[in-house]
Structures are given as structure tokens and as C-alpha cells.
Design goal:
The protein has about 270 residues and is α/β, with parallel strands linked by helices. It has 12 helices and 10 strands. The strands form 2 sheets. An 8-stranded parallel β-barrel has the order 1-2-3-4-5-8-9-10, surrounded by 6 helices. Strands 6-7 form a two-stranded antiparallel sheet. It starts with a helix and ends with a helix.
Length: about 270
């Protein structure tokens, strides 16, 4: 999917919501556990109930890898279902990969060619030769971990390096990498005060923003400081939506929660 196509979806749907498909078998409704593939059946129901209220779905691959080959097969079925039924949806493999060049090339091939995701999250610590293999694929995107929402982010990401915080150095440096126009960035919602500074460096790049809701981030604050002229935000919500209910009504309750966020986003977009 091209960036322009993503922008058009935001304009058409009046939403910039990304729903995280982080499936934990201990949290999904018990009646699904009787099915052959409870993870896929859970995902399918969530997708069917919410696809018109969001522009993106983001499976975190750890929640699938934890269940071995069956979990990976569930992930494969999920992305195939999305691509077949809802090709307009922007798909994110939240895999946080990043290794030396040849290994990164294989990771990129796995997520972009085999599974056909639109994007994958990547770690920048090993530098450009670990990220550029992901940027070599046409109309595919690497989403770089820039400033995350976890407590440990302050261990390294905000450390001062020659007068600049490290996350700023990472973002600035990444702009020089080959095919950097295919880069997006992860910026946690709990760091809303940093968005203005980040927008000075990357004024139009898309930002994947976790941390709204359950982790305490404010949608209004993120939009105030982080929205670009083309919106440029993918606001992720996982637990608050997919685990809104543990009963047979889980999909309808997920829709209710997604609708609340979509309506809030629509109101924000209507003021632009």
C-alpha cells in the first residue's frame, strides 16, 4: 500500500485507528477454545466487527510465536483473511526485527513476500544496514522504533548525545538511509510532549502511536502536537478494544469501543 492510499483511507473512513491483534488464549472468550483454531476465529470476529472503523490492524507476532507452529499458522490465516476480504486495510507486522543485512533481508522477505504485510516494525540499534533491506520493497514500509512508551525507554532513548537526545539522533540519521521515504516511526502516546520536537525533524512521516487509553496516553494531546497536514498518525489500541468483553458478545463490545474512538477521531478530523 502506498502512503497516498493510506491517506485516502483516512479521509474516506474518518478514522486513523489501528487495532492491535494481540491474542492471548487466557483472555479470549472460553467458548472459542473449543474451536479448531481459536486464535484465528477470535481475530476474524474482531476484524468483521471493526474493519469499517479502523484503517489498520497490527498483529504482534510474539502472541503468535508463543504458540509455536499453530500460532504462526493462525497469523498466516489472519493476514490472508485481511488481504482477501479487506485489501484497503493497512497491515502491520509488529515484529520489532533488526539484524545484520542478510538476516534482515530474510526477515523482510518473510513478512513482505510470504505473508504480504504492508509494513513491519524494526529496531534501529544496529544501524542502516539492518533497516535498509526492509526499505527496498516497493510500497512496503518499515516502522522504526523511535521513542517508545515503556518505562525503560528512558534508559537509552532520551539520553543526551552531544546536545541531542538519542531518539532525535536516530530519527535524523534515518532520513539519510536509502528509500527513507518508506519509513514510518513508533512514538509512544505517553510521550506527547516530545511530538512537537519530532515533527520538526519529520514533518510529514506517519507515526505509529501506541499507549492511548490503557497506558494513559491522551488522543487529544497526541493530535495537538503530532498531527501533520495529512494526519500522519496511526493510533493503536489493543486491549481496550479486543478484550472489551470475555463473553459471546465480545465482537459487538469490541465494535462499541472502536466506534467510540472512531467518533472522537472523526470529530478531530472535521476540525481540520
Amino acid at each position: 500500500m502506498t502512503t497516498q492510499q493510506l491517506i485516502e483511507q483516512i479521509q474516506q473512513k474518518k478514522t486513523f485507528l489501528c487495532i492491535g491483534l494481540d491474542v492471548d488464549l487466557t483472555k479470549i472468550p472460553p467458548h472459542l477454545l473449543e474451536l479448531e483454531d481459536p486464535i484465528f476465529e477470535f481475530n476474524k470476529a474482531i476484524i468483521d466487527a471493526t474493519h469499517d472503523l479502523c484503517i489498520s490492524f497490527k498483529p504482534n507476532t510474539a502472541f503468535y510465536e508463543a504458540y509455536g507452529i499453530k500460532g504462526w499458522q493462525s497469523l498466516e490465516k489472519t493476514i490472508q483473511y485481511l488481504n482477501e476480504k479487506h485489501p484497503e486495510i493497512f497491515t502491520i507486522a509488529d515484529a520489532k526485527r533488526g539484524d545484520i543485512g542478510n538476516t534482515s533481508s530474510m526477515y523482510a522477505k518473510a513478512f513482505f513476500e510470504d505473508l504480504n504485510f504492508d509494513s513491519v516494525t524494526v529496531a534501529p540499534y544496529m544501524g542502516k544496514d539492518s533497516v535498509e533491506p526492509f526499505l527496498a520493497f516497493e510500497n512496503k514500509h518499515a516502522i522504526l522504533l523511535a521513542l517508545t512508551s515503556n518505562e525503560g525507554a528512558f534508559d537509552f532513548q532520551t539520553q543526551n548525545i552531544d546536545g541531542k537526545e538519542l531518539y532525535n539522533v536516530v530519527i535524523e540519521t534515518s532520513k539519510s538511509w536509502e528509500n527513507s521515504e518508506n519509513l514510518m516511526y513508533v512514538v509512544g502516546a505517553t510521550k506527547a510532549e516530545y511530538f512537537s520536537e519530532i515533527r520538526k525533524i519529520i514533518p510529514t512521516s506517519f507515526l505509529l502511536v501506541p499507549g492511548v487509553g490503557a497506558q494513559g496516553g491522551s488522543l487529544q494531546e497526541v493530535c495537538k502536537y503530532g498531527m501533520s497536514e495529512n494526519v500522519g498518525l496511526l493510533i493503536n489500541s489493543s486491549r481496550a478494544i479486543i478484550y472489551a468483553s470475555n463473553g459471546t458478545d465480545f465482537a459487538s463490545k469490541a465494535r462499541e469501543e472502536a466506534l467510540k474512538m472512531q467518533l472522537e477521531m472523526k470529530e478531530i478530523l472535521n476540525t481540520l
